[in-house]
Design a protein that fits this description.
The chain has 13 helices and five strands. It is mainly alpha-helical. It folds into two domains: about 210 residues, Rossmann fold (3-Layer(aba) Sandwich); about 80 residues, Tyrosyl-Transfer RNA Synthetase, CATH 1.10.240. The strands form two sheets. Strands 1-2-3 form a three-stranded parallel β-sheet. It binds adenosine-5'-diphosphate.
Length: about 325
């Protein structure tokens, strides 16, 4: 069975961008693949953070992932910091990765422009990510569009390592991305992708009233100034959210109502709100259930780390042997 690996940072709440772009696919793919899903806490410390908050967010992230439908009977869910081989392999990959490749990563340029002093870890972030994926020799990585460049770097690292240390038969597969129909969810301000670090998110577990407060002022097609102005659905963020949350017949209806000015934007948002509630209410309810039984989260993560560690140890043994380290 092919393997998949994917990670998410516990740097804030799991938002609908993460859910639609990645975690929803984690749930679907766990049926067909041997799946490793990782809360990448070492990645989350590459920008300023509060230790107490990190602990809380890590637990909340695990709860959100489980509530979304990741099933610990099928998939391995674990914390990156619980498996030390991630950083061990990252060091090795650091010695193979060209500096120029890291400097030209869009996410590095973007995040470093928002930092006063730039930690080296922010630059080498994609190297740790390559280690995360290749440690499990994963073939497939379900991610959002923002990760495609990083994944290309993982492929480069795999190629370089294979060429140097395993030239006859590639030891590491070159992992491929698996994206969802919504690989890039925009924030409700319509200006940037929805991201934990930008504070423009709709939380997966947010109360309906809070979600509605965010939807009301959300940016739509700027050409619709008056209620009677017809709109262009494809340029509207709300329409794209309809495509993610509403059934196909509703999506068709929305497009007609928008382009004929049959509905005002607020009418359209009300329908979206109902669709979102339908999908998110059960997730929020499951999360509350899981939260009321915190010991199960710890047990799940511990069991996951054990399973992940067994695979990681074996990869590192082979890596070190091929690289000439004394046993
Ligand atoms: P964030 O940018 O919110 O910190 P992460 O870096 O932890 O998110 O990414 C977790 C997963 O969610 C990745 O697979 C990433 O591609 C996906 N993802 C993040 N933001 C979005 C978005 N706005 N739309 C679609 N997918 C996203």
């Amino acid at each position: 069975m092919s393997r998949i690996f994917s990670g998410i940072q516990p740097s804030g709440e799991l938002h609908i961008g993460n859910y639609l772009g990645a975690v929803k696919n984690w749930v679907a793919l766990q049926q067909r693949f041997e799946s490793f899903y990782c809360i990448v806490d070492y990645h989350a410390i590459t920008v300023e953070y509060e230790p107490a908050l990190l602990r809380e967010r890590t637990r909340d992230m695990a709860i959100s992932i489980l509530a979304s439908g990741v099933d610990p009977e099928r998939a391995v869910l674990f914390l990156q910091s619980a498996v030390p081989e991630h950083t061990e392999l990252a060091w090795i990959f650091n010695t193979l990765t060209p500096l120029g490749e890291l400097e030209r990563q869009t996410q590095f340029k973007d995040k470093s422009s928002r930092q006063e002093s730039i930690p080296v870890g922010l630059l080498t972030y994609p190297v740790l990510q390559a280690a995360d994926i290749l440690l499990y020799r994963a073939d497939l990585v379900p991610v959002g569009e923002d990760q495609l460049q990083h994944l290309e770097l993982s492929r480069l690292v795999a190629r370089k390592w294979n060429a140097r240390f395993s030239p006859e038969k590639p030891f590491f597969p070159e992992p491929k991305a698996e994206v969802t129909p919504t690989p890039r969810v925009m924030g409700l301000d319509g200006t940037a992708k929805m991201s934990k670090s930008l504070g423009n998110t709709v939380g997966l577990l947010e109360e309906p009233a809070a979600i509605w407060e965010k939807l009301k002022p959300a940016v739509t097609d700027p050409a619709r100034v008056r209620r009677t102005d017809p709109g262009t659905p494809e340029v509207c963020n709300i329409y794209h959210l309809h495509k993610a949350f509403s059934p196909p017949e509703t999506v068709k209806h929305v497009a007609v109502q928008c382009s004929t000015a049959g509905w005002g934007c607020i009418d359209c948002k009300k329908v979206l709100f109902e669709s979102m509630k339908k999908e998110l209410d059960p997730i929020r309810e499951r999360a509350a259930e899981i939260r009321s039984n915190p010991a199960t989260v710890d047990t799940t993560l511990r069991a996951g780390a054990e399973k992940a560690h067994a695979v990681a140890k074996e990869t590192m043994r082979e890596v070190k042997e091929r690289m000439g380290f004394a046993p």
